[in-house]
Fold this protein.
Amino acid sequence: MRFAVFLICLAAPVFGQSADTAARDAMAQLQAAQARLETAGDARDQIAALTQTVQAYEAGLAAARSGLRQLQAQETALTADLDARRAELGVLIGALATMSKTPRPVSRSQPQSPIDTVRAGMLAADVTQSLKGAADDLRAQIGQVHDLRVLRQETTDTLTAGMQGAQSARSSLGHAISARTDLPIRFEDDPVQTALLMSGSETLDAFADALATHLPDSEADLTKQGNLPLPVSGIVQPQSGDDAGIYIATAPQALVTAPVDATILYVGPLLGDLNVIILEPAPDVVFIFAGLETLYGSAGQIVPAGTPLGTMGRNATEVNGILTENVGDDGEAGALPLYLEVRDGQSSVSPDAWFALE
C-alpha cells in the first residue's frame, strides 16, 4: 500500500514528465494486477496475476529510480547555484563594508555637490536593496535544497519498501510455478542423455545444437518478423564483435519471461555456474538466455508467451567464460546483463531478425 501511495506522489511536477508518466503507468499496472489476483481461479490465472504484479512493481521501481536520479540532479544544480549566489552575496557585503569604512577626513577634503551626494545615496540604497534581495533568494534556495534532500530520503526509503514488496511477489510467484501441473509436456526430460550431450559439448552453442538435434521435432510454426518482445525489461548494450548474441542490461532480480510460445529444451547450470534456459519456438530455431540467478520450469514443458522463466541476480554475471561488468540503465549502478542468442539451423543469427531491439 505504501508503495502504491508513493507512485501517486511520484506523479508530482517535481519529478518531471518522464517519471510522472512511468509512475502513472506503473500504478495502473499494479491496480490491474491486484484486481486480477483477487479473481484468479486456477493456477494459470494466479501465475498470470502474480507475473503482472511483479512486472508492475518493476515498472514502479524503475520510475522511482528515475525520479530519484532527477532529484539528485536538481539538488546538485541547486547547490551549485546556491554556492554562486553566496559568492555574489559576499561581493555585495564587501562593497558595503568598503563604503562604510571610507575615512571622514577624506570625505570632507573632497566635498561633493548635491547631485553627487544624491547619487551616492542612491548607490548605497541600490546595494542595500540588492543585498536584501540576494539574502532572500539565498534563504529560499537553502529551503529548496533542504526540501529536496528530505524528498530524496523519502524516495530512497519508499524505494526500499517497494523492493521488499517486489521480492514478496517474486517469492509467491516462485511457489505458484513450482506447484503448477497444467503445462503440456512435449517430451520427458532424460537427465542421463542431457548429461552425455553436456559432456560432449565445449561451448554453449554446441550444447544447444546437440540438444535440438536429439529431441523430437516440434510442430510449432513461427516466422521471424523482428517484432518479438525482449524476454526482460532493460537496455540492449552495444554488440561486440566476439559475441554471437546480445547483452541486455537489467535491474537486479528482474523477471525474465518467454517472448513467445515455446518448448523448454534445457533449464539449469551449464559451463560451470552459469544458469541457462534454452527455448525452441519453432523447428531448428532456439533462443538461448544465460545469466539468470533463479530458474523456473522444467525441460519438456511447452510454455505460453509471457510465462516466467526466472529472475536475474544481484551480482556481475559470467557468460561464455567472460565476466561482464554491471552496465546500468542510464548509468544506474547494480544493473545485470542477460545474454540472448538466437540460433537457426545450427547457425547463429542476428537477434534483431526475431526481436524488436529498438
